[in-house]
Design a protein that fits this description.
The chain is of the alpha/beta class. Helix content is about 35%, strand content about 20%. A hairpin with a 5-residue loop joins strand 6 and strand 7.
């Protein structure tokens, strides 16, 4: 078996030394639909279950960050699982990856979060997630239990808030990260962005990770009268005008990604890769961004590392590709001929 190697970094001299995050911890199944046309609201479509493992957002991001940064970087997931077979299996996998599970609680007689993923033959797809799971019981009090690690790491920590736990619990994490000066990273679904409206919560975020649909949803919330610019650049311009402190990443699948560091926009094309499943690629991308920033890269450079991480992740049928680490990234970089900065190459090669 190939040795798992982290990026070429000295963690003692990195920008951050720990990540404290909340979001979904769960599992799921995959269903392959017949035909590539988009499933209609009232359509009945045939298909079959396939042998793929699904994981939820906090677990996916945490796993990749741990693999890229190594055991010297500590990750504290804050979440809840059920006392069922799925919860036991997930706890074992997270422990194996090296995550610190001090703040992952097991609830009795409550099921672990479950996601039903549907896949089109071309590899794209979506998912539906249960809303009565252990993750749905997660609240601000669970974040408060971890306050001592927020205080311990302070400005040397990353605070992460991602979907699949209630919004008010994520707000609590971002508020605590703000109180202790952590670097605050968040993502929301398009539906959550609509629900939040023009929210003050964005004041508690440093880096907002979006896909194109979510960006356009956020853009459409702005009420200022201005020339309509449906492009990514125009949307970012409008969002940045209201939230000038925000840094942004925006992904658009095989088209590539954009990053906004508060002053400049950068576009990064996707790397050419064999696509087995795109599920989880956005979370792998976010993990690459966090890892790159931790290692001292600029946001635009971290976007390059994230592109490699996300592109390699789609070569696995599972939403966590357990073969992603420095060695496989180095090999992928050589074989694909993808162009990255010298700073990114030094971390990988």
């Amino acid at each position: 078996m190939e040795a798992i190697e982290p990026l070429r970094i000295d963690i003692q001299h990195c920008r951050y030394r720990a990540m404290i995050g909340t979001g979904g911890i769960g599992t799921g199944s995959f269903f392959m639909l017949r035909g590539n046309h988009t499933l209609g609201r009232e359509e009945s479509r045939g298909g079959h279950f396939i042998d793929r493992r699904d994981y939820c957002k906090l677990h996916i991001v945490s796993h990749y960050v741990q693999m890229l940064l190594g055991s010297g970087f500590t990750i504290f997931p804050i979440g809840m699982i059920g006392d069922d077979e799925a919860g036991t299996a997930l706890r074992g996998e997270m422990e194996e990856a090296g995550l610190d599970l001090s703040y992952v609680r097991t609830l009795s007689q409550v099921p672990t979060l479950f996601s039903f993923c549907f896949i089109y033959p071309d590899g794209s797809g979506g998912n539906m997630t249960t809303d009565d799971s252990a993750s749905s019981r997660f609240g601000p009090e669970a974040v408060a239990e971890a306050e001592k690690v927020f205080a311990q790491y302070g400005a040397q920590g990353v605070g992460l808030a991602v979907p699949e736990v209630p919004l008010h619990a994520r707000y609590a994490l971002l508020e605590m990260a703000t109180a202790y000066s952590l670097f605050r990273v968040a993502s929301f679904t398009a539906g959550e962005i609509r629900e939040m409206g023009v929210s003050r919560v964005y004041n508690n975020i440093d880096l907002l990770a979006l896909n194109l649909e979510e960006l356009m949803q956020l853009r459409d919330l702005e009420q200022e009268q201005s020339e309509d610019k449906p492009s990514v650049e125009g949307a970012v311009e409008r969002v940045a005008k209201r939230h000038p402190h925000l840094q942004l990443t925006v992904t658009d699948g095989s088209r590539g990604s954009w990053s906004w560091d508060g002053q400049h926009m950068a576009f990064q094309p996707a790397a050419q890769a064999e696509v087995i499943s795109t599920a989880g690629a956005g979370d792998a991308f976010l993990a690459g961004v966090i890892s790159g920033l931790t290692a001292g890269l600029t946001l635009h450079e971290a976007q390059q590392l994230a592109t490699l991480t996300g592109s390699l992740s789609v070569a696995s049928p599972h939403t966590i590709h357990k073969g992603v680490h420095r060695g496989s990234l180095s090999r992928f970089l050589r074989e694909s001929g993808y162009k990255v900065s010298d700073a990114v190459a030094r971390l990988i090669i």
